[in-house]
Design brief:
This protein is mostly beta strands. The chain has helices at 216-227, 240-247, 251-263, and strands at 7-15, 19-23, 29-33, 46-53, 59-62, 73-81, 85-89, 96-99, 112-120, 125-129, 148-156, 160-165, 169-174, 187-195, 201-204, 231-232, 267-270, 273-276.
Length: 278
């Protein structure tokens, strides 16, 4: 069966005036319109294509890459609004519908929203929802403390920023761990700082624990020292903003890295800054 919302390897069955018909082992076929056909091909070749429904609700194949995958989150712009809902630009010819019932608030043309791509099992039609919290679950976590994760900034809260972790879980970056501007929809690499008893995730923008000289922050500080004649006027009393402007890391991460270098006798801690040991 040719599945909606998936990439799949399909076989070229025949060429027509409107495009190539592709098929699967179950003898179902789908049209790949002329504008998406390769310049060179042979009957029997296989193509990797994405399948969705066109304006007439027929299955159609494309080699364009959508900006969101099935059962994933993305930050998309509203291209138009009609009497059935909002339509998003997701990189394909037919825009992606967010029905009114799936909008947390009334969506507006030109604005950007985090949405989740789902499929209606009764109609086999793709749709997006802006009610994203219900698509996240921390009941069965797939991450460990200290692990690197992919995250998307979801919303600002009183405590910091709620984030989507690995397209599955919800996490929190505390305000005290934020040392650069974060925007809703940003995607970044983060690290699991703590897993609480209730399975809530605390996320850090910096790696957790710096125990050896292989730490990239140690290497960064050493490179800066070598580039500045072995001295940097950064102290423990320097502000987080000053440290971030120099190294793009938090004050806590900086102090840990400097502590590692000090223990290894790579640097000395002087009243006016840190100095490279010759």
């Amino acid at each position: 069966m040719i599945k909606i919302g998936h990439y799949q390897e399909l076989t070229i069955l025949r060429e027509t005036s409107v495009g190539l018909y592709l098929g699967d082992p179950e003898d179902e076929d789908v049209l790949l319109p002329n504008k998406y056909c390769p310049s060179k091909f042979a009957i029997g070749d296989t193509l990797n294509v994405f399948v969705y429904r066109d304006h007439e609700e027929r299955k159609i194949a494309t080699n364009l890459k959508p900006k969101i995958g099935l059962h994933q989150f993305a930050f998309l712009r509203v291209a138009s609004v009609s009497n059935v809902g909002a339509f998003l630009d997701w990189g394909l010819e037919k825009e992606l519908l967010v029905p009114f019932r799936e909008q947390r608030q009334k969506m507006e043309v030109g604005r950007w929203y985090i949405v989740y791509l789902d499929i209606d099992l009764k109609t086999d039609r793709l749709f997006a929802t802006n009610k994203i919290e219900r698509k996240l679950s921390n009941e069965n976590l797939t991450v460990r403390e200290g692990e690197a994760v992919e995250m998307m900034i979801m919303k600002k809260t009183d405590l910091g920023f709620s984030v989507i972790v690995n397209q599955k879980h919800e996490g929190l970056i505390f305000e005290s761990d934020v040392f650069s501007k974060l925007n809703i929809g940003d995607t970044k690499r983060g690290f699991v700082k703590n897993i609480r008893d209730d399975n809530k995730l605390d996320i850090s923008l910096q790696p957790i624990g710096f125990e050896n000289f292989n730490d990239p922050n140690c290497e960064l500080i050493m490179k800066r020292l070598n580039a500045n004649q072995g001295f940097l006027p950064i102290l423990d009393t320097s502000t987080p903003e000053e440290i971030y402007s120099q190294f793009s890391i938090s004050k806590k991460a900086y102090k840990k890295a400097v502590g590692t270098l000090y223990k290894q006798r790579k640097v000395t801690l002087d009243p006016d800054g840190i100095r490279l040991v010759k």
